[in-house]
Design a protein that fits this description.
With about 300 residues, the protein is of the alpha+beta class. It folds into two domains: about 120 residues, D-amino Acid Aminotransferase, Chain A, domain 1 (2-Layer Sandwich); about 160 residues, Alpha-Beta Barrel (D-amino Acid Aminotransferase, Chain A, domain 2), CATH 3.20.10. The protein contains eight helices and 17 strands. The strands form two sheets. Strands 8, 9, 10, 11, 12, 13, 14, 15 and 16 form a nine-stranded mixed beta sheet that branches. Strands 1, 2, 3, 4, 5, 6, 7 and 17 form an eight-stranded antiparallel beta sheet that branches. Its cofactor is pyridoxal 5'-phosphate. Belongs to the class-IV pyridoxal-phosphate-dependent aminotransferase family. InterPro entries: Aminotrans_IV, Aminotransferase-like, B_amino_transI, BCAT-like_C, BCAT-like_N, BCAT_family, Class-IV_PLP-Dep_Aminotrnsfr. It holds the Pfam family Aminotran_4. It catalyses: L-leucine + 2-oxoglutarate = 4-methyl-2-oxopentanoate + L-glutamate; L-valine + 2-oxoglutarate = 3-methyl-2-oxobutanoate + L-glutamate; L-isoleucine + 2-oxoglutarate = (S)-3-methyl-2-oxopentanoate + L-glutamate.
């Protein structure tokens, strides 16, 4: 769905609620030229108790932590950003939506150094369905190993959710789609599995669960951490610092993506090689069901993870 097709009127920008079409920046904004921004992606779910932001505090933690490598000081407190987000969801009368906070070095000097530039902050929210498609939740997706490698943490901080870093994700994802796949898997500089362009990845083998650790240059995904906890609560052994070779993908019993946008999405083929029986596996299905039972509040588990609007 394109933004022009949505009935969303307002964005919070630098302390004020402004009309969607007026939420603009100068063409010489530092973040536009150098990717010097950080962002978050948060889902708000429709529950029996009203709209609820999922793991907002953890997302807010990462938002602030992502600014540190760039010496970026946010001009708003956690409480101010929280209240702005809740008010935005209320104003737009959104029940289920995706929320995008972003902070970036703004218009000032166009030298590479951002020290003379202001920090601008905005928050948008809009309805957004399943990132990889509703059918993908049950049928799974076909992916390819990208020829683009994930940048190493020695080159740029991989655990900061930096706007400019997603050029790497865009290249990998568009390469996959040009070749007829839904999504990509990106290897790190050593040739081991890192993640998807916007998702973490899990492998199931002999009833145990494996996912690459932070040493593999991945983003420390909040949905990833949620899935790990849900799996351990159900008695699964989870290896959350795994090193997974490219070849292990083809011989996995099950594979699936996790992410705020992708939620829990099975992978049925990698480079046209069928994974398991070529459909959503039982472990993936159990964890996917547990995830949606949780976020849609069909049970009372982990109520501390929800911020109710």
């Amino acid at each position: 769905m394109g933004f022009d097709e949505m009935d969303v009127d307002t964005i919070w920008q630098d302390g004020s609620f402004v009309d969607w079409d007026d939420a603009t920046v100068h063409v010489l904004t530092h973040g536009l030229h150098y990717g010097s921004g950080v962002f978050e992606g948060v889902r708000c779910y429709d529950t029996e108790n009203g709209p609820a932001l999922f793991r907002w505090e953890e997302h807010l933690d990462r938002f602030f932590e992502s600014t540190k490598p760039y010496d970026m000081e946010l001009p708003y407190s956690r409480e101010e950003l929280t209240q702005a987000t809740l008010e935005l969801v209320r104003r737009e009368e959104l029940e289920s939506c995706y929320i995008r906070p972003v902070a970036f070095y703004g218009y000032g000097s166009l030298g590479v150094s951002p020290k003379d530039n202001p920090v601008n902050v905005a928050i948008a929210a809009w309805p957004w369905g399943t990132y990889l498609g509703e059918a993908a939740l049950e049928e799974g997706v076909e992916v390819m190993i990208s020829s683009w490698r994930k940048h190493a943490s020695s080159q740029i901080p991989t655990n900061a959710k930096t706007t400019g870093l997603y050029v790497n994700s865009m290249l990998a994802g568009e390469e996959a789609r040009r070749n007829g796949y839904t999504e990509a898997i990106v290897l790190n500089k050593e040739g081991n599995v890192a993640e998807g362009p916007g998702e973490n990845i899990f492998l199931v083998r002999d009833g145990e669960i494996y996912t690459p650790g932070l040493a593999q240059s991945i983003l420390d995904g909040i949905t990833r951490n949620t899935v790990i906890e849900l799996a351990r609560e159900r008695g699964y052994t989870v290896h959350d610092q795994a090193t997974i070779s490219r070849g292990e993908l083809n011989t996995a019993d099950e594979l699936f993506f996790s992410g705020t946008a992708a939620e829990v999405t099975p992978i049925r083929k990698v480079d046209n090689v069928e994974i398991g029986n070529g459909s959503r596996g039982p472990v993936t299905e159990e964890l996917q069901q547990a995830f949606f039972d949780l976020v849609e509040r069909r049970n009372d588990d982990h109520d501390e993870w929800f911020t109710y609007v």
